[in-house]
Amino acid sequence: MKKTIFVLSIVTALLLVMGIITKMNFAQKNSNISKDLENKKNLVAYFSHTGNTREIANQIHNITDSDIFEIKPIEDYPNNYQAVVDQAKKEINLNYKPALKTQIKNIESYDVIFVGSPNWWGTIAPPVATFLSTYNFEGKTIIPFITHGGSHMGRSVSDIKTLCPTAYITDSHSFWGSSVYSAQNEVSEWLEKTPD
Ligand SMILES: Cc1cc2nc3c(=O)[nH]c(=O)nc-3n(C[C@H](O)[C@H](O)[C@H](O)COP(=O)(O)O)c2cc1C
After folding, report:
1. Is 53 in the pocket of ligand 1 (CB under 6 A)?
2. 151 lines ligand 1 (CB under 6 A)
3. Longest dimension (CA), the chain
4. How far is the CA of 112 from the centre of ligand 1 (A)?
5. 98, 76 in Cβ contact below 8 A?
6. pLDDT at residue 10, as a whole number
7. Per-domain residue ranges of the chain
8. Which atom of ligand 1 is least distant from the CA of 176?
9. What superfamily does domain 33-192 belong to in CATH?
10. Rounded to the nearest whole angstrom, what is the distance from the C-alpha of residue 105 to the centroid of ligand 1?
């Protein structure tokens, strides 16, 4: 009998400790996001050619516990730097919107959509323009994030506004492409006060 009580006490203590640890982890995960984000359904949708924007997208996804969606064109862009630069220039000048490989089914269920893109020729990459033109973002909050090689957001925000005139576009943030793997603090600080 004494032995049973002893075993039960140990099990109860273990369960208590496990419960406290789980709670601490949850609190830690959500401690650095604004109350607004915590209470909303959030999506991170991004396009990335060389991985920088994907890295920031994953950091946002991990901190906010949001869903994540990669915007992929049917035709991949060339790996050769000059070839992609030339193709992007042509597409942007023609306002071309490449068809996408994957669609998102339940966009209406999201309140806040983080939209990520590399800065290509001073604006969002064409697949992101396709994404923004495909769905109805009326009344939704769009938070743009851009990775760049020196020209920050460029005209990305005003171009997003033109594509989504009925969305609430706020708190955009740009990240140096060369520093994305050490941007955790910058991402956390930004998310603490987002959306404003
Ligand atoms: C086609 C192309 C055009 C670019 N144009 C610009 C630009 O106008 N301004 C800038 O700061 N960086 C520019 N860059 C650099 C990218 O914005 C930067 O490397 C970005 O972090 C890449 O993101 P990704 O790895 O997610 O594709 C360009 C890169 C490419 C491939």
Report:
1. yes
2. yes
3. 82
4. 25
5. no
6. 67
7. 1-31, 33-192
8. 21
9. Flavodoxin domain (3.40.50.360)
10. 29
